[in-house]
What does this fold into?
Amino acid sequence: MIYFDNSATTLRKPPGVAEALAYAVNNFGNAGRSFYDAALLANREVFKTRLELAKLVGLSEALNVAFTSSATESLNLVIGGLVKKEDSVITTVLEHNSVLRPLYLKGCDLCFMDCDDSGNLLLKTLENLIKPEVIAKPAGVCRQAKPEGFAITSPRPRFLFCTHGSNVTGNVIDAKKLRGICESHNITLVLDVSQTLGAIPVDIGMADIFCFTGHKALFGPQGTGGVIVNGSFDFSVVKTGGAGVNSFDMFQSKDMPDIFETGTLNSHGIYGLQKGVQFILETGVEAIRARENHLLRLFYDGIKNLERVKIYGDFEPEDRLPVIAINVDGLTSAELAGLLWEDYGIACRAGSHCAPLLHKRLGTAESGMVRFSFSYFNTEGEIEKGVSAIRQTASRRR
It folds into this structure.
């Protein structure tokens, strides 16, 4: 199998990840629940994983790293703990359903930043959306938008939820510029770094809150993720129960990391995640990015001039993810992905990638796209075989 679906999950992990999982299953007690050796061992390794993640983003306080089961849970907890129905919130057309659906459930005043035809977020539209009166225009519109030319009066936005890197096009957002705009308007920026943390540099100064997953670019196991908080926020309790401390209090502590860590932690998975993060720190994010960008460019250069192949995304910037999405004229995305698997053993992802608004914006809601996403552990030989497979598939289907 040639595995090109690393944006969904990295299949090939550093060797220490699987070894750590096996060790933890056989040796860890319940972290933070007692003082015997097995429990203390689990507790120490969970804390060490916080330290490693803090080091990766330049965070000084490791306890501002909380663990969850996934980026989806992280985003649900942050949205549920911060956003109220009466709030005005900005998000983007690039977002994954793990951002969109929790916001829809809130029923809040919701506005969207638009993108261009290559999927680049239009940062210039943000200033218009921040104003108390927003005009419904294609470059940045409110969900409750009235017909063109009519003003909508809404409170100033309190939050902006934005992906750092698109899981469809691989385009990366200028998070530092976005944070600067948000700071000048007292808007809390929540950054979804599911695709970027571990793949490209992510710095604590890029956002107020980061939601991440462990099983993609961090090379950790599935069932791991978390929230990184840059500062102090008044989260409401969303998920509650036993936390191992303050058991006689009626309500759960709102301090980090307790606010997000109800119940038994997945210490087995967290220990595996630690080894993935350590591999990144030892190898270097820049070295990983250079390797993955090299593979991406080989693939892109090999298919960019093929007839009947349409490529989505902006490939001019060097600062992008190792992701490329395509369609072949005359084939649905499901048909193309099926042929690549059946004829060549290439694993990729067809469909909408849980990003419905971006597909609508790019005109692929009906057809979907086929996404190829590469990892540090892919090879040049696999890239060459992938290019050859697309060339043959596109040329024979006339």
Confidence is low (pLDDT under 50) at residues 133-140, 144-153. DSSP finds eleven helices and 16 strands in the chain. The radius of gyration is 22 Å. The longest helix spans residues 37-57.
